[in-house]
Amino acid sequence: MAMQLRVYVPPHPLIKHWLGVARNATTPSPLFKSAIIELGRWLTYEAARDWLPTEDMVVHTPLAPCQATMVNPEVPLVVVPILRAGLGLLEGAQTLLPLASIYHLGLVRDEETLEASFYLNKLPQQFEPKTRVLITDPMLATGGTMMMAMSELSKRGVDPALTRIISVVAAPPALQKLGTQYPSLTIYTAMIDEELNSQGYILPGLGDAGDRLFGTEN
Ligand code: URA
Q1: 157: phi > 0 → left, psi -120 to 50 → alpha, else beta; which?
Q2: What range does the domain containing 41 cover?
Q3: Which of these, 36, 60, 64, 127, has the minimum number of CB atoms within 10 Å of its CB?
Q4: Distance 182 CA to ligand 1 centre (A)
Q5: pLDDT < 50 regions, the chain
Q6: What is the value of pTM for the model shown?
């Protein structure tokens, strides 16, 4: 059977709440940051359901031996935040995945052509087989940045079927591009918005996530 991109919008009240806080233009930067961290935590929780590898074992309670299912520490877990704004989601993700290795990718978008290019790439030459990768980027807008990130990861041996993306708002152009090139990928997002404006910003979106996160708005 042909694979098709899976996009989940978890119907969770805390995800809806923190999305509302993040969307609100009057939310000050420190609270915006809290909202993105919380969204990182809850979206990671949802994404981990069918992704975190577990193993069955016997543990001994104070009274008797007992079957237990534990996270398998031998399967490599990686988080790739897309700078800058992916750092906020990373903070929430790390509370659930404290043992994951973090490899940073910095991409900047040319405001005229909307083309993305790398200014930082800390990925290793090759990932171990079966590595689980979680990519954090709050805004999937044109999809240019995420397509470049996926291409770099695939070149280094990452399997898109073992990759999860968490985003706060996703737009159809990004989902279309990713679905065509990486149909086995899975995305968790707080919302899918309708469209982009002429500068490639998501409408209604939440504005410039990096600026709002780091307090660098004018
Ligand atoms: N990046 C942002 O920060 N916001 C958007 O709406 C699109 C890309």
Answers
A1: left
A2: 6-51+74-214
A3: 64
A4: 22
A5: none
A6: 0.96
- For ligand 1, mutation pick of 202, 203, 212 (most atoms within 8 Å of CB): 202
CA gap 103, 124 in Å, rounded: 8
Q: Supply the CATH number for residue 46's domain.
A: 3.40.50.2020
Q: How far apart are CA 111 and CA 45, in angstroms?
A: 34
Structural domain includes residue 34: yes
Alpha helices (H) along the chain: 13-23, 29-48, 86-96, 144-155, 172-181, 209-214
Name the residue type at position 134.
Answer: L
Domain-embedded: residue 66: no
pLDDT at 3: 86
The CA 195 to ligand 1 mean position distance, Å, reads 12
Instruction: Report helix, strand or coil for 57.
Output: strand
Per the structure, the count of domains in the chain is 1
Q: Which residues line ligand 1 (CB under 6 A)?
A: 85, 139, 141, 201-202, 205, 208-210
pLDDT at 132: 98
Domain membership of residue 183 (yes or no) is yes
Query: Is 47 inside a domain boundary?
Result: yes
